[in-house]
User: Fold these one by one.
Assistant:
Number 1:
Amino acid sequence: MANIKLIALDMDGTLFDEQGKISKKDRETLQKVTDAGVAVAIATGRAYTELPIEMLYEVGVRYAITGNGSAVYRLPNRECVFSDCLDNEVLYAILEEIGQLDIYYDIYIEGTAYCPKSVCHNIRRMDMPTEIHEHVERTRIVVDDLIDFIKASGKQVEKATANFALLEDGTLLGREETAKILDKYPQVQYLSGGYHNWEFTKTGVTKGSGIRFLAEKLGVAMESTMACGDSQNDLAMLEAVEVAVAMGNAKEEVKQIADFISKTNNESGVAYAIEQLVFGENQ
């Protein structure tokens, strides 16, 4: 059993159940492991302002690896301790092209999500549950022109996301076209964080690079790290850590690289993995 000192947890499909809640068992186990001196971080594709900060802080989470590794923040004061952003000039070129498609897209700057007014009609068309549509509507700041806004801000973009409407024939409107556009720019990389979307960051930026930075900052050897995840955007993180945990509900490609397959997110799979791998409890 590894001597775990840092645990990184994906949120959606991992720490959160299908209702977007953290189970009582997961809460109790996270408090127990942090009381034992283990650092716990969230590793998510979300922006900082999308996180339930109070809920996470209460269970001992002190760091958030956000935007698929593009920025690391300290909780609860939103202090950015690391960022590795997209090249804005490259991003402008991409946005010019995908802006011609009938899709939804947004960007993250310093932990806040922004979208152009022209794509808001697509939020309710995205292939995802209604509660996530509502979450997007609550958390995005709408601007008139996204490129002009970025230029006026003088800031760099952490991550961008594109989501697509599901047509009656089962195809996703604009998804293949968006991939072809992104393929033209070696300065960016993209993957699906869920619901068939495309999330793109600077090439080389992943949840794996985020946890490596955080481990170095905390003085923790990678041999003492553990991570739990379920989706494609968790693969790099699971490959980076010493102990890789796939949730019981994880995609098959995630399970294939895991050292341990836990219970599902609806069965307190995070707590089960920690009990087995950190505390050595046999159940």
Note: DSSP finds ten helices and 14 strands in the chain.
Number 2:
Amino acid sequence: PDPGQFLGEIRLELADVLKARLLLERHLIRQEILELLEECKAQIGIQTVIGEVEDSQIKTPCLFGYLRPRILLPEGILEELDQSQLRYVFLHELAHLKRHDIFTGWLIAAVQILHWFNPAVWFAAAQICADRELACDELALSTLADNEPKAYGSTILTFLERFARAHKLPGMAGIIEDKTLVRRRITMIAS
């Protein structure tokens, strides 16, 4: 069997399993959280209807889905983060949506499947994923006041300390995807 095809089938199956699980999960209905999300959507310029789901299997916040996007939050995160930290999380995830990073993730996965044997493709895919996190940070930071970048960077560090790295799926884009990239992200945020 072709290893590229096998890899593609595994990714699709993982995405389908997650999608099926999320259909069974209930969306968040806490009014203050929904209002905060709406404020963030207006701030970043997004009109799309977005669901929020708290899930015990998710280890770090992420955006899931392209046509019907959802922000997935780890169970208990709403008690761990204050309102401003949650706002930064929403802005980062909404930046992924505005930049169409989910579609890009699927496109990258398709190229990796077709060229599974080419290390240059795998290297390029890793660089694209790293750059997309920097671009989302930059977009989120562009919507913040001058005194907020330090708090935004601190929120990124909070996720490193408290939450584990998420599994990479082409239909997901998270706030912490690669711990080795964090120094580069924090340097960019600080500047």
Note: The longest helix spans residues 119-142.
Number 3:
Amino acid sequence: QFILATIPSLKRLRISSIDSIEIDPKLMDLLCHESRLMPHLHLSLQSGDNMILKRMKRRHSREDSIKFCSILKKFRPEITFSADIIAGFPTETEEMFKNTISIIDKCKIDKIHVFPYSARLGTPASKMPQIPKSEIDKRASKLRELSNKKVKKHLKTKIGSVQKVLIEGNAKGFTEDYSRVSFQEGPNI
């Protein structure tokens, strides 16, 4: 709020990674109504299963994330979400993994940043029952495949549309909803 109020000429402001539980009412109001805040948020989701979230010591629940995304979609239907997901966290059952798959649809996530779990010595998670690496790889692959489908589906909705693009050099940039754009440079660019 301070940045937007202090710099009224600022045309666009992008929030990077966000945890829904950290959003206070003022920021939620801005996210819902301030057009200078870009319509894309990257969620620090990690999992869609409450027990796994608890074991990760995350402060948000599955329901918190779904509610957050639902409210934002209601006020800003154009908003898109990407999310970090850890595949194969210790003790994750097939049912828990299915909860993660289902939250991707419930939150209308368009892109998934997949991180296969790897143990770090000395962490509480490294002392929990581990998932076999082959299963972690299988789950990570399934999430990447789902992400590719979601990205393609989202990009198909942009075909033929006119978008504002923030050019970041080398004939590349990002739309307001954080879709990557490549183009050929010409004499008018």
Note: The chain has a mean pLDDT of 93.
Number 4:
Amino acid sequence: MNKLSGLLLAAILVMTGSVSVASAAQSPITLRFAADEPTGSVEDQGNLAFIKEVEERSNGRIKVEYFPGAQLGSDKQCLPSLLAGALDISFIAAGNLAEFTPAMNFTDLPGIVNSPEQLRRVWQSPVRDMVAKKIYADLKLRPIMFDVAGGAARAIFYNGKPIVRPEDARNFKFRTTGSPIEVALFQSWGAAPTPMAYSELYSSLSQKVVDGIYVHPIGAYDQKLTEVVKNATIINLSYISQVKLISEAAVAKLGGVDSDLYKIVLEAGRNAELLKDKLYAERVKSVYDELAKVGVKVIQPQGDDLKAWQDKAQALWPSIVNDPKYSIDPEVLKIVEEIRNK
């Protein structure tokens, strides 16, 4: 009788264990995704499309928990959580990534590309894999999206006298990212670069801790910086690349780099990039009217004035590309220049 009872108990344990295993196998893999742009923005729309594609194509095997609007902090604040596996997907701008790896330093070279379309072609070229390998070697994180943030070149948004030529920026205090190239660019104008977290920017502008920021027009408008700055000078020198990274722990949850689930995430990331490009291109058409409506004076240097900005930028190149501390990969630079000159 005791033997029969033991067999029955063993059978029950096996059955309940099987049920538990089956339930676990059917449970979705949850990926925690942190982003910075506010809800409703182009960035947010693209991220939601990415999430929808991942969840649908995986037949529900992947579930994405999404935290937009910098709910979990700035890009540099989120990076330690990503490295620790507490976050699965997070964002970081190329300028801030420079503090952890030089993989994307080349994107901060002023004049490296002439349009957002050229920058997209860079991220569709062999440069994509070259940068991805360097990021993985340095951080053990894998890129799944390279975004051309804002769909337009960065402009100088600021308070104070109008800035038309580089020398007009002398003694202005500008918030910068952690990019040493961006810092060098502002110093070449005679301005005072002030690295700080983006989350501190609004209050710093309103309290006159800094005079301005170097940001694309859509970002300035969507982040409501136009409430605390009144001028914008369009110089068409620099474009922002932002990368979405996935942790090694998340890749393992998905089954590794060769798994179907990871490939779905990669493909959805590429599709989201192109959707954002399209949405940004449409939005850029109206952003200057939106700036005017909220009282921002837009200054667009022409002729010799515009050339003065370009000349200052080009004068920086030799000291940057030949200096080991910037770690600009010559093979990457060669490919990018070929794309720009086509």
Note: The two ends are 86 Å apart (CA to CA).
